[in-house]
Amino acid sequence: MNTNNDEKMVILGGVKLSGEVRISGAKNSAVAILVASILVGDKCVIENVPHVSDIVDLIEIINGLGGRAEFVGEDVIEVDCSELKSHVATGERVRRIRASSYLMGALLGRLKRASVDLPGGCNFGVRPIDQHIKGFEALGAYVDIEYGTVNITADSLRGNTVYMDVVSVGATIDVMLAAVLADGLTVIDSAAKEPHVVDVANFLNSMGADIRGAGTDVIRIRGVESLHGGTFSVIPDQIEAGTFMIAAAATGGDVTVTNIIPTHMESLTAKLEEMGVGIEEFDEAIRVYVDKPKLRRCNVKTQPYPGFPTDLQPQMLALLTAANGTSIMKENVWENRFEYVPQLNRMGASINVEGTDVAVVEGGSKLIGAPVCATDLRAGAALVIAALMADGVTEIYNLKYIDRGYEKLVEKLRGLGAQVTRRCVNPMPEVLRAVNE
Ligand code: EPZ
């Protein structure tokens, strides 16, 4: 995988996608499970892991802590943290990914102390960790943030009730990690219910943890003495699946996404059907097809699971540019997730952002290929979808974001008939440099 930012994606639009695409393992689940394996003093084999740059970064981080992690097959990682000694995770790799926040909970649970640089990740405004800290403190830890590093120590960890003030995937998983080996019962109230929260709990349970209620508002974790090794397979990626479903609809195509869990897709399939997109569900696949000349407008609000995922908001906004009439997108999870909108407007879209959380899309304008710049991972996916819909050639810059979360995107799109390639950048157009800085 080439993760350098010296490449651009070049897409000739106008092709209706058709055929079958196999969805990879869930990136947001795999990153958490990889870190969770720090709690296991034994070898874990993790299957169905996507080969994306966030995973590569985490492998390096775990190896730097004294664990051993490596890809032993195309999508299989072996990780053995029995010798892991260091509680200090600092440096550029830690700072650039959000999932490094899980190192706090996992190192605290395993070593009773952690020093972790404040996690980075995509920039949607402030990304606080107060709920993580509140959870660690409830378990008896002391937390101190100094020069951008979170230092956490505990003499011992004791189960407690943690009420989350906001529904947070990261804080729910982090507190779960800290509580697995603590003494007694921890209750997480107002927990996140995302499929990857459930997957992390299933992973830990399969290694000997006692976690109940994952997937509901209340998760109960009874601490155990230790965890044992084993083999676990990561769930399919809900967001990658949704991205391909939206791309199929946006190009007026006929695509079957396979290796998915259709119930995870319900909030999206409901919206696509509302727009007039054809949906056919199978046990582990969904066919998406368009047999109408024009799609209907619709309004969308992002919500924690089982609501419409914020991580499909940019892709959906790209699709809404093709619908008949005015659609409204309301972002309820992140305070500022419309930074990419000017890039879509560069391609001829007519989208107005009101305040920081509402985008109004005047549908029906034909998109035209242009040089554009990904501003984060899912924004990059939205630009790919817009490029597939557009007349002419689009060049997408800043591929480092897309490489964080989409495995073999170019190959998969080509398999559906798209005209897409990656080429060296020389140089990035002047007009995009400010966006890239
Ligand atoms: C996870 O981020 C995902 N990342 C994000 O996906 C996703 O957008 C997000 O969940 C929401 O679904 C990973 O799983 C690695 P949160 P996370 O904690 O855990 C507020 C992608 O594109 N909050 O659920 O960081 C926060 O500001 C990425 O794959 C607090 O106030 O998100 C936000 O408004 C981007 N205090 C809301 O909660 C806290 O301590 C939800 O955030 C924590 C969060």
TrEMBL record:
Domain of life the protein comes from: Bacteria
SUPFAM superfamilies: EPT/RTPC-like (SSF55205)
EC number, UniProt record: 2.5.1.7
Cited CDD domains: UdpNAET
Catalytic activity: phosphoenolpyruvate + UDP-N-acetyl-alpha-D-glucosamine = UDP-N-acetyl-3-O-(1-carboxyvinyl)-alpha-D-glucosamine + phosphate
Location within or outside the cell: Cytoplasm
One GO location term (cellular component): cytoplasm
Catalytic residues as annotated in Swiss-Prot or TrEMBL: 122
Residues where UDP-N-acetyl-alpha-D-glucosamine binds: 98, 127-131, 311, 333
Pfam families referenced in this protein's UniProt entry, alphabetically: EPSP_synthase
One example of a Gene Ontology biological process annotation: cell division
Binding residues for phosphoenolpyruvate: 27-28
Modification type 2-(S-cysteinyl)pyruvic acid O-phosphothioketal: residues: 122
GO function terms (MF aspect): UDP-N-acetylglucosamine 1-carboxyvinyltransferase activity
First-level EC class: transferase
Domain (Enolpyruvate transferase) ranges: 14-413
Keywords assigned: Cell cycle, Cell division, Cell shape, Cell wall biogenesis/degradation, Cytoplasm, Peptidoglycan synthesis, Pyruvate, Transferase
Pathway it works in: Cell wall biogenesis; peptidoglycan biosynthesis
Family classification: Belongs to the EPSP synthase family. MurA subfamily.
Function according to Swiss-Prot or TrEMBL: Cell wall formation. Adds enolpyruvyl to UDP-N-acetylglucosamine.
Protein name from the UniProt record: UDP-N-acetylglucosamine 1-carboxyvinyltransferase
